[in-house]
Amino acid sequence: MTDRNAQTRRRWLGTCTGVAATTVLAGCFGSDDDTSGENGDNGTDDGDPDEESLGEDWPMYGVDVQNTAHQPDATGPEGDELTARPIVDLQGNAFDPPAVVGGTVYVPSTSGDTYAIDPEREEILWRREEYGVPIVHDGTVYGPADGGQMYGYDTDTGDKWEPEEIEGINGLVAPVPLDEKILVASNEVIWEVDINTGEYARLIDTPAFVGSSTNVPVYYSDMYYIARSSVLYGIDTEDSKIEWTYEPDDEGRLSDSNPAISGGTLYVNSRDQKLHAIDTDSGEEDWEFDTNSNIETSPAVANGLVYTGHWGYILAIDAETGDIEWRNENIVSGEPLDIVVADGMCYVTTRFGMSVHDATSGDLEWKYEIPDESDISFIASPAISGGTAYVPSSDETLYAVEDA
What we know:
The protein is an all-beta fold and 404 residues long. It has 1 helix and 34 strands.
């Protein structure tokens, strides 16, 4: 079966370059003092997401601003007997993974809205216009919106955060929230946005490109990393300059896969059918692994292993050497969406269900296969929290995969 319903919003929308003038108009929203560190919500200097517990929260795509997709303290189902419980009708598809903070689920929908949902009561707490991959930081959920704007809403009340309006730009990607500022990229510019005032400042112009851009860039030690088609940029945010660029030897496109960083190494899949490991300081390649297929899923990194997969299998690769640690073909049929790791378990989701593997050994722990007669078809990777895997489906519904 080659039809792939489980396309991410990034893949089916795509991004094309353009040159446009920008106009900045004033706007503001009062916010609480930001007490997190500039390397991520956990406030660590080295950007290690394991240094401080997030509890059961899953605050953003990839869990942290390094996109590791690893949340060691979040718990999923035990898996003895499973059910997919419908929570709410989203009146549209959610091609981006949900975020979960304080027991509330935040999910975007192609209906044009972002939802805050109480999953236990199966109740919509608030619903606001604009949608895009949700990033929760310091009491506000942010995201990219159509028309060159970010959206931002108070997580409790839904009150709108008003950034400055930027006219005439294209291709806004997921914002990266830091201490007192947000980094966000359009096709032509990397912007720095003041969290308190919503004021935009042009950090750096980036070269024109043809093709797509990284949907969720990463940040580590004052550096911002984004791929434009086949070129990966390491941008020094303190000195506002491109520190280095990296391009695979055969110019394979890097922007289909969002990068992940751990231990000073960036990992990204490429259209040259390789997984690349790149030193974040120098931009030099440490190693490459031949995947023998065009893998568009984004890698996850946890406990010294890099996880990736393709139709019918999942791989764990040693993060330091690039050697295969294990391979498992006992997954649910279909092409995997972005793999995530929680509580020592590796979650592999396809349109047809979900399999969970021991992250160290690769052994299958449990498998949930969607019944043939069901209208469910998973279309985004899950958020893991409180014994549940929250995952959207093509029947325009958010589901909780949980113990029956």
